[in-house]
Amino acid sequence: MSALSNHTRVTRLYRHSLKTMLSWAVQRDIFYTERDRIRAQFEANAGLNQPGQIAKAIAAGEAKLAEYSHPDPYTVPTAYGGSKYARNPPVPGEMEVVSDFGRESYVVPGKY
């Protein structure tokens, strides 16, 4: 398995940071403030160019993300693990959909 590039690791770290923050901040105005704070932390490290510094900053960010992980993270209701996942099971195979209801061959017109 090949190692991920630093750019990919930083991108994933940023996205996962925002998703984790969504689990903690229910109100959007609070989330937007925290989003800006997280973005500022990433921008502060954007100028790093030494491989050792970059690796250390990424490792510190991943450790901080693990520290702030939510014990009960938000899950989209229709996604796997959500409260609405598979709530409407598929129709059983023995069920039949009749497209021409009322015009079946055994129905006598005008009798009803």
Automatic annotation (TrEMBL):
<dbReference type="Pfam" id="PF05347">
    <property type="entry name" value="Complex1_LYR"/>
</dbReference>
<keyword id="KW-0007">Acetylation</keyword>
<comment type="function">
    <text>Accessory subunit of the mitochondrial membrane respiratory chain NADH dehydrogenase (Complex I), that is believed to be not involved in catalysis. Complex I functions in the transfer of electrons from NADH to the respiratory chain. The immediate electron acceptor for the enzyme is believed to be ubiquinone.</text>
</comment>
<feature type="domain" description="Complex 1 LYR protein">
    <location>
        <begin position="9"/>
        <end position="66"/>
    </location>
</feature>
<keyword id="KW-0999">Mitochondrion inner membrane</keyword>
<keyword id="KW-0472">Membrane</keyword>
<comment type="subunit">
    <text>Mammalian complex I is composed of 45 different subunits.</text>
</comment>
<keyword id="KW-0249">Electron transport</keyword>
<dbReference type="InterPro" id="IPR008011">
    <property type="entry name" value="Complex1_LYR_dom"/>
</dbReference>
<comment type="similarity">
    <text>Belongs to the complex I LYR family.</text>
</comment>
<keyword id="KW-0813">Transport</keyword>
<dbReference type="GO" id="GO:0006120">
    <property type="term" value="P:mitochondrial electron transport, NADH to ubiquinone"/>
</dbReference>
<protein>
    <recommendedName>
        <fullName>NADH dehydrogenase [ubiquinone] 1 beta subcomplex subunit 9</fullName>
    </recommendedName>
</protein>
<keyword id="KW-0597">Phosphoprotein</keyword>
<dbReference type="GO" id="GO:0005743">
    <property type="term" value="C:mitochondrial inner membrane"/>
</dbReference>
<keyword id="KW-0496">Mitochondrion</keyword>
<keyword id="KW-0679">Respiratory chain</keyword>
<dbReference type="InterPro" id="IPR045292">
    <property type="entry name" value="Complex1_LYR_NDUFB9_LYRM3"/>
</dbReference>
<dbReference type="InterPro" id="IPR033034">
    <property type="entry name" value="NDUFB9"/>
</dbReference>
